[in-house]
Amino acid sequence: MTTKVALITGANKGIGFETARRLGALGITVLVGARDERRGADAVRRLREEAVDARAVTLDVTDPETVFRTAAWIDEEYGHLDVLVNNAGTATISRRRALPSETSLDDMRAVYEVNVFGLVTVTNAMLPLLRRAPAARIVNVSSEVGSIASQTAATSPLSTMPASAQYPSSKAAVNMLTAQYAKELAGTRIKVNAANPGFTATDFNDHRGIRTAEQGAEASVHLATLPDDGPSGILWGHLWTTEGDGDGGYGVLPW
Ligand SMILES: NC(=O)c1ccc[n+]([C@@H]2O[C@H](COP(=O)([O-])OP(=O)(O)OC[C@H]3O[C@@H](n4cnc5c(N)ncnc54)[C@H](OP(=O)(O)O)[C@@H]3O)[C@@H](O)[C@H]2O)c1
């Protein structure tokens, strides 16, 4: 049996790194996508210390040249790709929280470049390789904040959070892209799903999250390793509730 190969974007730290670690522990070769060569090499060194078969790829999702170069390299080295985790993401480039009425369009465009256009660039570049795998899985790391149903339901904890334009709408776009890719690829061996890590303590939120990075990686790992009779075209992951400690376990979230 040939070893499975997974590419994880933004895997040098946070949820992406933990996803690489956990997929690697399952015996999958992990290609650690990092936009900074040194940070990627450092992550690979830490993964190899845990006996993970990890290799670094320098990939900035907003730079198509690095994406196409990565696809060509994977083709040469492996000839196919079993798992793509579109994990790279950002909430704001300016680090400024803003109401929709105060949103900087430059900041919004920069967030969309990474979260939305970057995801499409990487997915389309990797699709020929994914089509050659026996049972490929695409995981788009999204968020419950991109769920319009959760944002607008009075019973959701999200309904009381401050309004914001760029990040939630970018993840709503990720959700729709997931549904549309799943629609296009229905009838193929490729499953496409969106993952909700839950509010996870990483650099992303200055470690204010309530879940560990390992817990945050759970949804991506689950969707990356779905069996052949598993779903395609869903948003799955941590369920945040208004009950008790807010931990509702895992399951399908509304779009
Ligand atoms: N943390 C949460 O509570 C939470 C909740 C829901 C969803 N998410 C999603 O989970 C994913 C991972 O977030 P995280 O919490 O692990 O954040 P993180 O620790 O800040 O990691 C983000 C990763 O994305 C990379 N990245 C950013 N821009 C990139 C680009 N242009 N090209 C390639 N890589 C890029 C970063 O690289 P550098 O190190 O070079 O900056 C880093 O590796 C994101 O999609 C985020 O939206 C997070």
TrEMBL record:
Q: Which UniProt keywords apply?
A: NADP, Oxidoreductase
Q: Which residues form a coiled coil?
A: none
| One of the record's GO molecular function terms | oxidoreductase activity, acting on the CH-OH group of donors, NAD or NADP as acceptor
Q: Which Pfam families match?
A: adh_short
Q: Which domain of life is it from?
A: Bacteria
Q: Name the PANTHER family for this protein.
A: (+)-NEOMENTHOL DEHYDROGENASE, SHORT-CHAIN DEHYDROGENASE_REDUCTASE
Family membership noted in the UniProt record: Belongs to the short-chain dehydrogenases/reductases (SDR) family.
The protein here is known as Short-subunit dehydrogenase
Q: Which organism is it from?
A: Luteimicrobium subarcticum
Q: According to the entry, what is the taxonomic lineage of the organism?
A: Bacteria, Bacillati, Actinomycetota, Actinomycetes, Micrococcales
